[in-house]
């Protein structure tokens, strides 16, 4: 093997190792903080702040407004294992619209905070705050374009940080070598998870989150194993008709996507728009990921031939990470 080819292979191995390490640490997705305020009576809001936890430690986050607010009930805190939930009831001396909302302490973190405020008239304000932009002015109302953009961005962010969903797509790409079949397979996956995403967020069909997340991890293990069998010259339903398998597992992944959207909620007056925008965001992120992977593979192939063992090693690496997630999530279900 030439020194140039060996160097490229070592570089690819290093990049993949880092990616797998990041994915293993993140498990499902980068967990943002979440603030939910709902106006129960004029000027009185119920509040919920969820902050990620690592062991017994949690992010030191709190909310503040430019106008005066006061607690109507004491703040109650309860840990859920992966997050700390704080709930309270507050009264705003002046309308929240036009005030500046800040997430104190966010600047010192590496996470985002998703903010949702639902007013008594049914209107909803949704905003994503970041360490670089930890405050925002609450508008009187959001335009249709603002609602669409907010949910579109939320969908893109969810898929790009949904490492288990991306690994499933990666494993599909290992067993589908023809670009026409790849388009058909990804289309089937998209159609399937769009169906269950819609059904779950509308409340027409639901599944418990823990079993769904476990089954998603197991689906990655299965497809990864099929990629290895294909490299050994064996065939199966998965390798012959990958679009059927993608559709079946896509139904399951749709319930996983719905978890994020159900948590955020849908604005009463723009439910179809928000649902379509979120789903479109998921697809944009998914297609961007596929394009990135195909571009990277094409670039490497122009430099050196990709050996067969690289595909097998990738399938094993994906399978190992997914098996770890499966065991971790299965164990969490019984603790």
Describe the fold and architecture.
- This protein has nine helices and ten strands.
- The protein is α+β, with helices and mostly antiparallel strands and 335 residues long.
- Helix 3 packs parallel to helix 5 (209-231).
Q: Keyphrases for this structure?
A:
single chain, 335 residues, alpha+beta, 2 domains, 7-stranded mixed sheet, 3-stranded antiparallel sheet, 10 strands, elongated, disordered N terminus
Question: How do the strands and helices of this protein lay out in sequence?
Answer:
Layout: H1 3-26, E1 33-41, E2 44-54, E3 57-58, E4 62-65, E5 69-79, E6 83-92, E7 100-104, E8 113-118, E9 124-129, E10 135-137, H2 144-160, H3 163-175, H4 179-201, H5 209-231, H6 237-240, H7 242-264, H8 271-303, H9 308-333
Parallel strand pairs: 1-8
Antiparallel strand pairs: 1-2, 2-3, 2-6, 4-7, 5-6, 7-10, 8-9
Signal peptide: 1-25
Transmembrane segments: 148-169, 181-204, 210-228, 240-262, 274-297, 309-327
Protein name: HupE / UreJ protein
Strand content: 15-25%
| Main sheet specs | 7 strands, mixed
DSSP helix count?
9
> Tally of extended strands?
10
Oligomeric form: single chain
Q: Taking Cα atoms only, what radius of gyration do you get, to the nearest Å?
A: 22 Å
Helix fraction by DSSP (H/I, runs of at least 4): 55-70%
Structural class: alpha+beta
Q: What is the terminal-to-terminal distance?
A: 50 Å
Mean pLDDT: 81
SSE sequence, one letter per element: HEEEEEEEEEEHHHHHHHH
Q: What is the approximate shape?
A: elongated
Low-confidence stretches: 1-30
Number of domains: 2
